[in-house]
Amino acid sequence: MTENDYPIRLQQLTIRYESVPDVLVMFGDESRTDDLVTYGIVATNGEQHHLDAKAAWNRVIEAAGGVEDARVHARELFSGDARARSAWRHLGESEVERLTLDLMSALVTAGARFFIGVVYKKTYPVEGVPAGLNAKGEQTYVPLTDEIAYAFGFAAATAAMRTGDHAPLRSGVDYRLYIDPQRSKAPLWGHGNLQIRRLIEGTGLVPTKYDQKPLLLDAADLLAYAGARALSDHDARNKAVCREIYGLCSPQRGHFWWNPQDGVIPEMKYRLGLE
Question: What is the pLDDT of residues 136-195, one digit of tens each?
Fold first, then answer.
């Protein structure tokens, strides 16, 4: 792995803003395909910028026939059956594509920043990661679960925040991080069952508690969903529009893969543009 594949702490973050924000407001969510897990983060520069971005998002919602603060869930929107049971039942497939593009375009215009962490599941051993010997002296293995990969994806996404030639945030800058609660547990080799939230907090970023789900979590959901399908080696019915959304947001990207040896494993070379 490179240095950008590892978890980092807040004072190391870099972000493309001309001025250092007093409060960095971030929203994060995950998605998955058969070969990838993605974690998307949408960041705004302070509370006023967050409110401006939220207002821009709501204007698109209302223009598409939705009520203010209507929820947007990518899997629901892009599934005809699920959409037919939702507040977006009046939209056809082409209108859904237009809505998702307009939503992310509104955030781009409002100056939001986008980051994505990608976990390459196919690089992990099929039998699982070696996890020590059992009482009989036999080697045991723990497979990579999507839940564990969510935490790895979060770490990769936050690592992507410090790439490029940008001045780092000053130490101690305030932040708010809104993500799904992630209360589930999953096995991590050598550590037993761990709560996914604990792994995420291991980056040094502690999620903010909330009663009502923040609206722009839907933006992070859409970013992660589109990124997973745009970057996957597998086909998807909506791959073209997902690639368009991903290109529109142009997120900074961090990578996470299984690397039991020095250097870059062959499966990752083309991903990183090394061949």
Answer: 999 988 889 999 999 999 999 988 776 543 433 445 568 899 998 888 888 887 777 888
Give the Cα separation of 201 and 10 in Å (integer): 11
User: Tens of pLDDT along 14-67?
Assistant: 444 445 556 889 999 999 999 999 999 999 988 889 999 999 999 999 999 998
β-sheet bridge partners, residue 255: 118
Q: How far is CA 79 from CA 60, 61, 83, 91, 234, in A?
A: 20, 18, 6, 11, 18
The Cα–Cα gap between 219 and 152 comes to: 20
* 134, 171, 239, 262 from 138: Cα distances, Å: 5, 47, 44, 26
CA–CA distance, 179 with 101 (Å, rounded to integer): 22
Angle at 75 between CA 253 and CA 239, to 5 degrees: 60
Q: What is the pTM of this model?
A: 0.86
CA 111 to centroid of chain Cα atoms: 18
| Residue 1 burial class via C-beta count within 10 angstroms: exposed 0-12, middle 13-18, buried 19 and up | middle
